[in-house]
Amino acid sequence: MPKYKYLGKATQKVDALERVTGKAAFGADIHLPGMLHGKVLRSPHPHAIIKAIDYGMALKLEGVKAVVTSKDLPSLEDARASFGGEVSIDQEHLRKLFLAHDKVLFEGHPIAAVAATSLEIAEQALELIKVEYEVLPPVEDAFKAMQPNAPLLHPYLYPKTLGQKPKNPGNVATIMFHERGDAEKGFAEADVVVEESFETAMVHQVYIEPQVDAAQVEEDGKVTLWTANQGIFNVQSQLSSILNIPLGSINVVPMEIGGGFGGKIITYVESLTIMLSQKAGRPVKMVMSREEVFKATGPGSPGYFTIKVGAKKNGKITAAYIKMIHDCGAFPGGPTPMASLVSFGPYNIPSIKVDGYDVVTNKPRVQAYRAPGGTPVNFSVESTMNVLADKLGVDPLKFRMQNYAKEGDYMVNDQRYNRIGVKAVLDRVVSSSHWNTPWEGPNRGRGMALGFWIGAAGTSSALVLINSDGSATGVSGQVDLTGTRTSTQQIIAEELQMPLEKVNVKVGDTDSTPYTMGSFGSRTTYSFGTAVYRASRDALAQMKARAATQLKVNPEDVEYAEGRFWSKKDPEKAVSWNEVARSTITRGEGVVTGRGTVTGLGHAPEFTAQIADVEVDPETGKVYVKRFTAIQDAGLAINPMQVEGQIQGGVTQGIGWGMSEYYYYDKGKLRNASFLDYRMPTSLDVPMIDIEIVEVPASEGPYGVRGVGEVSIVPPPAAIAEAIYRATGVRMNKLPMTPEAVLWAIKTKDKEREPVAANGDS
Amino acid sequence: MPKYKYLGKATQKVDALERVTGKAAFGADIHLPGMLHGKVLRSPHPHAIIKAIDYGMALKLEGVKAVVTSKDLPSLEDARASFGGEVSIDQEHLRKLFLAHDKVLFEGHPIAAVAATSLEIAEQALELIKVEYEVLPPVEDAFKAMQPNAPLLHPYLYPKTLGQKPKNPGNVATIMFHERGDAEKGFAEADVVVEESFETAMVHQVYIEPQVDAAQVEEDGKVTLWTANQGIFNVQSQLSSILNIPLGSINVVPMEIGGGFGGKIITYVESLTIMLSQKAGRPVKMVMSREEVFKATGPGSPGYFTIKVGAKKNGKITAAYIKMIHDCGAFPGGPTPMASLVSFGPYNIPSIKVDGYDVVTNKPRVQAYRAPGGTPVNFSVESTMNVLADKLGVDPLKFRMQNYAKEGDYMVNDQRYNRIGVKAVLDRVVSSSHWNTPWEGPNRGRGMALGFWIGAAGTSSALVLINSDGSATGVSGQVDLTGTRTSTQQIIAEELQMPLEKVNVKVGDTDSTPYTMGSFGSRTTYSFGTAVYRASRDALAQMKARAATQLKVNPEDVEYAEGRFWSKKDPEKAVSWNEVARSTITRGEGVVTGRGTVTGLGHAPEFTAQIADVEVDPETGKVYVKRFTAIQDAGLAINPMQVEGQIQGGVTQGIGWGMSEYYYYDKGKLRNASFLDYRMPTSLDVPMIDIEIVEVPASEGPYGVRGVGEVSIVPPPAAIAEAIYRATGVRMNKLPMTPEAVLWAIKTKDKEREPVAANGDS
Q: What separation in angstroms does the CA of A29 have from each of A18, A23, A224, A285, B283?
């Protein structure tokens, strides 16, 4: 008999119908009485001092109701006062990111915003705003930024570091030094040492739905904000600190969200929309264009990596070293700490050394993109591991079978793994039909790579209401980014032993739901699912207590199954779930509200192994991904259909990152800010992605569930690069592996290796 | 030192600003994308058989998207099946009330509804619907309805009664016989017996905002309904049974409500709106006109009363008898049971006999109107008591001081009073400045009357969320009809000992809040306030537990006051409320959600004494109410300003009921369905109404709070009638006491008494 009735089943998404019929209400569907349309004036320069802004003409245009600039922001001093001195440099940067103060730091940096009675008028008004700039030379990439005479973005910036503070400010935002064991000794003990360098591009999450929001500010300053962010409570706290509004005076209402992938955790237009509404005294709506999204939201960080790994002849790794530099755009906040954790995560390595740098440049400030920092570093490390395996003369799989990490081993940092599934996914590769089906012939190659993502847990809360007709409603503020309503329905149905159709799931606003962290970091099913589980158990316990009263027995003597309560001592003494539910609204202990909350769950690490088969056209360099299998440890797949969808999405994005996507900057200006020029994979670029789910229960939380949303994006470039090597004999050390880049590599493979221009711009 | 910091204070209404600035969102403010406008075709006849409805032409009109008639209703059989045979005759009548089936039973009875792209088109379409009627003679009033050969409204109607079922169906819906003690013996023992007869008119609640709603039905049948009803959960359950939709598939969203007074408990257009949306596949909005409100919602019941009271020479009442007939309009459901309870409620009477009848007529089905049934019966009983006092030669106040009910005495039925404040309000009359200020001179008179309303309790639920910044939010589905958000804010602030501005209050929908009964029956502050109190205490207990963890002491050793937790054993060991709140979202036991629910509180009876001074113009019969004082037991007035406002509103409505308001029917057709012809009191018709609040704590619930919303409407006509008698020597036994009626009474006072036409129509 299966362990669960509703878990592990591919039940229909609860929001499937409203999604396919177009009834689901997204941000763009918001219409409020008297609503104005907002539009943002953005810098055409990547780096400049703002000398003056004159919006007098714009204000005179009929239909224009408000213009805001950084002058309209509450002062940092005021904000500091009301937050008890807690406005950090990060919060200051958040304020400067969404609205330039004295300097613009990237092309597209907001300078002013206009609210008008129509979008057209708002756009006209932008043209009437005169900005006087003193243009500065842009800092184009992390290398240039680190040069001693580089222009400074922030003349006050010193790196966050464990070591000594440098004498002068610079463009380095974070310096990370970490060593576990003795790397020097480890390399000395090695029989083989390889060292490789890599470079990856800036790419965007390219969610379908651009950023959109609407704000309404009441006379007493209370704000209602409708937004499509990944977390309503993080929006609330960001806005509270940016705009110096008490947390409780901001109600954030979640709309349906058209993709986020980490790029919709931070707020962009929200603050401007609120400021416009404050000034105009009317509701304001703001929708970003795709060009604005590309230029002025937060893409994934590009990185530069040097990896050194040493091993014994027997294949055992003795030491590893990584140096990484992340370009984090105009403000601090790159992925170095997470990338460090990902780097050698799948391996048990006695000695590890990490040098990491986050560097600011005149580009949009990077943000999380699905396992943030994971893909570039994994491409670099896994490619290096494959070079090493090659030198050792073992195949990549065998090499990994010799070195994988297991429970109790160290992570890259000084934590130890709890129960993890690296071996399980490797075993599944060994037995997989893909791995065991030959892929031979000219220009063909197969690659594999491991991927790791630690996943977050965080704080979650949920309520389970028992309605008078016996149905149940799960209530929370957890934004449904990835099918959360559906898994919530399954968990409640499982715990309350009632049909799925009797379980409703409602996502509420910050005013009416208990705090829960946003939907990111693979935390939703793991941590929020735990809150739902607890709330369901709590509701059931209360229902049992009410049944006990009705049966005149002790609560501990009440059994429950499938809609029926009965006395353990006298099984004939029974009362139905529906009867008890009906009675809650008329008598006894009253209405049942189950609550569940959780903080501080341990990690539930995600591991995946991916296998890619490619065929390379030697005439054009075009790489055809012909077969792809992702094997992933889900702990328990509550809804396998949703898990598969997640993994397929992640792999597709990983293929895009690996093969075709990049930001093409030219003197600090983005030249491909459209879907015509920014090349996402289409359905013709990816094969059917086969999924194999492995289930190694997580150490904590109910059911052993692990998050599954992120790790799938991590290894595709590495797996494909290995496959390209097997097909062509060339190793691609730069992303994306465009046809031009691959062709160039093939054409020059017998010549001395030299840097390859992935972007085709050399 | 005052007992409470935030209770008993006239704090500002939390919604004051948004109300006065027009930002508060009422039903009429709803705009949904693609929304259609609904309009209802209503019967011009008070009584007719519907032979045929042809809406073919209407459907052909461009812009018309749906037409519904009773044919579109799910069959009663289906409804019975899905509700397990629980569709009662009342539910059947509810279906027939909002949409005529085979017969129309009152002028304005809905026959069909249209949804179109504009209101104008919907109105045009109504004119294109052809209805073939067989007109029947209307049953115009309760007396005519009870005649043996009266036309029958419902050929299947037998009265609900304790006695025997009559042989034939009739128009009597309820028969009530009740006797406590031995009335015959009581009257035999009396030295003085008086008997009087009375008649009162049908009046309307005349809430400012007409009924309005909007519905959106999803592909899977899920309904979202925005409505301005007094209770969202009662709407949900009504619609579920009328339309045969599972309870959990109907989400009712409360809008701000512009008055209800009992008239917005039942649904009218809601079902039609949903049916139109189901058929059109688009959202539909419906707004009633004032004429529709007058003709086709539920006014207060008109009544006919005969009262007999006997007393000893010493003034002690020995027995009382009442016969009452209520005209309940087209469907059963009149106020006889409640009117019976009100009748002799303020008195301790050894023997009581009640004969009561609810009778159907061809008028709109009556509904609750603030202390439903209380005003007419109180006018009749209090007037009779004054006649009796007069005969006994004691003043009305002294007479009442001899006979008032007290704790432990019987109510009219066989229950006994818990703690009540009749004596307290009478004592306050004795000491009041009003009573002690002479009011003398020609054509002047003073009257007083007692009023009683039992009040409801019912089931209530609330949540109190503790936010990460230390603020708190009260969440519930309790519609704020009378300042509930404000009293909720005060209770939470009191219990959590935090400033009012740190407490938010949110009213949510049926999907996301635990069940709570509607806002009616004086139950809100009493019962819902109890739920808020419990939720606050629960939240505080959880906060204490978290503080205990942080202080490393036992939870029972934690003290709390004014934002600070400390250890009883070591008062220096302390942590702030805000620190604990902040920690809830990051560690430990997690987020704090306090919950409170309550069922089955005992009654918290409301008593009032009111004093009216009038001056009568003997030339015109016009009565000027020159001074009015209402003394009322509030148990504890959580917000005295709100309590005073409630009482002033109730008295004003009572003055309207007594002096000027009535439905003028002519052969079953309402001739004064507009504000021009239906005479509500204006500010020129009422003096400043002075309020004195007496506080006799209720037996149950926190703080001793009693409901205050209803009883104030009960005695104004009786008090004024007594004042008129003192001014003119004539006793008015019919409402309203219009100038014409008073003048007629004065002119004929020395002639034999004969019925006076209050309506001026004889």
A: 14, 10, 16, 10, 14
The DSSP secondary-structure symbol of B12 reads P
How high is the pLDDT of residue A587? 86
- The contacts of residue A402 (CB under 8 Å, 6+ apart) are A314, A315, A316, A394
pLDDT at B756: 45
Please indicate if any CB of chain A lies within 8 Å of the CB of B34: no
Which structure tokens are listed for A402? 């010799």
**To 10 degrees, the CA torsion angle through B485, B487, B490, B494?**
-130
The strand ranges marked E within A522-581 are 558-561, 564-567, 574-576
Q: Is the peptide bond before B736 cis (omega within 30 degrees of 0)?
A: yes
Average pLDDT over residues B149-160: 91
Q: How confident is the model at residue A219 (pLDDT cuts 50, 70, 90)?
A: confident
Q: Does the CB of B516 have a partner CB in chain A at under 8 Å?
A: yes
The DSSP element (H or E) to which B670 belongs, if any, is strand B669-670
In CATH terms, the fold of domain A303-455+603-748 is Aldehyde Oxidoreductase; domain 4 (3.30.365)
Instruction: Report the complex ipTM.
Output: 0.92
Closest CA to A365 of A240, A244, A263: A263
Separation of alpha carbons A533 and B587, rounded Å: 18
Spell out the SS3 assignment of B54-112: ECHHHHHCCCEEEEEEHHHCCCHHHHHHHCCCCCCHHHHHHHHHHCCCCEECCCCCEEE
pLDDT at B757 over 60: no
The pair of structure tokens assigned to B375 is: 């005003």
Strand order of the β-sheet with A472-476 is A503-507, A472-476, A460-466, A593-598
Q: Please give the torsion angle defined by the CA atoms of residues B649, B652, B654 and B656, in that order, rounded to the nearest 10 degrees.
A: -130
Cβ pair A735, A623 in contact under 8 A: no
Closest residue on chain A to B217 (Cα): A23
Is the model's pLDDT at B162 over the cut of 60? no
d(C-alpha A185, C-alpha A187), whole Å = 6
CB contact under 8 A, B475 and A17: no
User: CATH top-level class for B31-136+208-259+264-296?
Assistant: alpha beta
**In angstroms, rounded to a whole number, what is the distance separating the alpha carbons of residues B76 and B95?**
9
Q: How far apart are the first and last CA of chain A?
A: 63
Both tokens of B6, joined, read 């935030």
- Kindly calculate the radius of gyration of chain B based on its CA atoms and give it in whole angstroms: 27
**B82 near A CB under 8 A:** no
Domain ranges of chain B: 16-22+457-598, 31-136+208-259+264-296, 303-455+603-748
Round to whole Å and give the CA distance between B373 and B337: 9
Return the pLDDT at A82.
56
Burial class (CB in 10 A: 0-12, 13-18, 19+), B197: middle
pLDDT band at A164; cut points 50, 70, 90: low
User: Looking at beta carbons, which residues of chain B come within 8 Å of A216?
Assistant: 23
Written as six digits, the tokens of A702 are 């109910």
Do A303-455+603-748 and A16-22+457-598 have the same topology in CATH?
yes
Residue of chain B whose Cα is closest to the Cα of A516: B585
> Which residues 458-497 of chain A have a CB within 8 Å of chain B?
459, 461, 463, 465, 467-469, 471, 473, 475
The pLDDT of residue A761 is 42
Close Cβ partners of B167 (under 8 Å, ≥ 6 residues apart): none
3-class DSSP state of A518: coil
What is the rounded CA–CA span in Å between residue A757 and residue A735?
A: 9
Architecture of domain A16-22+457-598: 2-Layer Sandwich (3.30)
Q: What is the mean pLDDT of chain A?
A: 94
Are B447 and B429 a contacting pair, CB within 8 Å? no
